[in-house]
Design a protein that fits this description.
The complex is a heterodimer of chains A (about 170) and B (about 550). By secondary structure, chain A is mainly alpha-helical. Chain A has 4 helices and 2 strands. Classes of the chains: A mainly alpha (about 170), B mainly alpha (about 550).
Amino acid sequence: MVRRLKHPFPFTARIRAAVEGQAMTYADENRYPTSAPTGWPESYGHDAPRYDAYGWQAPWDAPYSPYAYETHREDADLAALRSAYRLLRRTSTLTALGSFVVYVVLSCYAPALMGSKVTGELSLGMALGVLQLVVTFAAVFWYGRSARRSVDPLARAVREERAVPAGRHAGTAR
Amino acid sequence: MNDFDSGTQALVLVLFTTLVTVTLLMCVMAGPDRDDLANFYTGYLSLTPLKNGLAIAGDYISAATVLSTTGIIALTGYDGYVLAVSTALSLVLLMFLLAEPLRNAGRFTMGDVLARNMPGRAVRIAACLVTLSATLPFLVVQLSGAGSLLTFILDIPHAAGARTASIVIVGTLMIIYAAIGGMRGTALIQMIKIVLLLGTSIVVAALVLKRFDWSPGDILRAAQHGSGAGPAYLQQGLQLGTSTGGRLDFVSLQITVILGVACLPHITMRLYSAQDVPAVRRSMSWAVGTVTTFCLLVIVMGTGAAALVGSRYITAADPHGRTSVLMLPQVLGGAPGSAGATILYSAVAGMVFITLLSSVAGMTLAAASSLAHDLFAHAVRRGQAEPRTEMTVAAWTSVAVGIVAIGLATVVQNWDVGVLTTLAICIGASAVAPALTYSLFWRGFTRTGLLATLYGGAACALLLMVFSRAVSGTPSAVFPHADFDLFPMQSTGLVSIPFGYLAGWLGSRLDHRRRAADSHVQRRLYEESEARLLAAAE
């Protein structure tokens, strides 16, 4: 089950990175910095041994570091995808959950308000309940459209960089 | 109890037999090859989004949902409407929050998702135990309901033997579906079920509305009258009371439902069989659309039952109103014995029967898959099992799970075990939901945290449930005459959900402190697999 292949690390990228003297970069969106001190002067020697005279431990992603250029671009794209997904996820989930919680709390603790008649026998509470169900269709449609616009292109970019056929169409790959 | 002549019963029996024959045939034809695991667990990813969406919706709308929700709406009005809304929104939350990363992270079972960054037998065993504790209660409650339901539908006199026989028949069928059909076979049955369910519900709801000249106001007036509750029918509080505690209990129940139902393993399992992320999104759109439509129809049917049947007859047949959906066609179809009444009643009975069969089969399959894949293949054989062996084990665990469920259901058939549904949903919300959200979105999540969430959340839900008012202390409890209701609520979500999340966080903090190296490794594994999680990149 070899599903998590290491990056293919094209040799050309390595040369390009060496020629351009690309600065070593670590995963930039790492919210929980591991052991690498940020701002460490590292503008040279990305092929040098990772254990240097200053005695700091090699960061865990050391094996990737020689291919800084590729890694950097991949990380940037992955970070963009991550934040796009996060935004979409938070907006949609909090809206759905929030509106429902407000609805339930209002039903319980403001019965007079929710019991006020809208038309005929239909009370505000019932109308809101049915409305949530109806709005669900629109919400799902909106979610699909936003995901296609914001997330899918980024995801495609990440997949193509990692140079593996998209998806698991083959079936046997699982 | 139901005033139908032998002709109707014969028609219903013929319909049942036809349904069973057709579904069994389809199951055998669609069954997987003997040594292809991917085929057994995911059906080759060959379903189109529409079909997969229908299958997800079919798994999601269990017999408990159809029968209890209609009953709760018929008896308590507004509280039931809120329940219908939360049931629909739960699947929406699954789609927005978990579906896409779950599809990318998962392979066959929940254990695959949770163990992807934390290999080890403890994780697999915990995942399997929680899967079982969430699916078995649901399975048992539906099977034990099958007994009384079939005797009600076929109007067999209430004898213990008849009910046990019904349970055994339904149980045997469900074992065959799960063991032979695998994921693909059950998907076909779920599709047939959801089409029948939607079709029949649309007809019943339309007949209800037509009876009142398509005027919602008239139905609501009649329902207020029929329920005997008056204006209270359209206000929150009939189900659990309007005291402070009762209202808090109601909020807790709704939050538990919205967080828990869609996380149950037999539903998330369907997501792994989608081809890619756009496909899972489209599948979920179809599923949400179907479920939402059905919830709207349930609201109409439940209100119609209150208006046309009346709560007196509903509670006489079943105190929780679970037979109300079957009593509705008897009123709607015209004179007893007429062709319309017979056909409508048979259609509704068939719909309930196939719903029951397909939902228990789906749950059996989920439990058996977890046993075979997580417990046997990964915990016992450490991932070294031959696919053919694992397939055989999966088939036999389906049989074992089925037999255990049949046994338990027979034992509890005389008790009012509706509380087991609540228990399953509570475990879903307080163990499965935190474990999945942490595992998918928090890179600092560690093995101890995961185990703490799974075991802590499930144990907390289970313990509180045992000491809740749903088990003892109230007239509608499982043991109405005993008194050990130390936890003054009907559902445990208000306490156990925060507990599950807290346990996961504390466990992870502990690992950061005590086993910094391990937690770094796990963080690294998370980050390495992030491209796969978010973009399905290999």
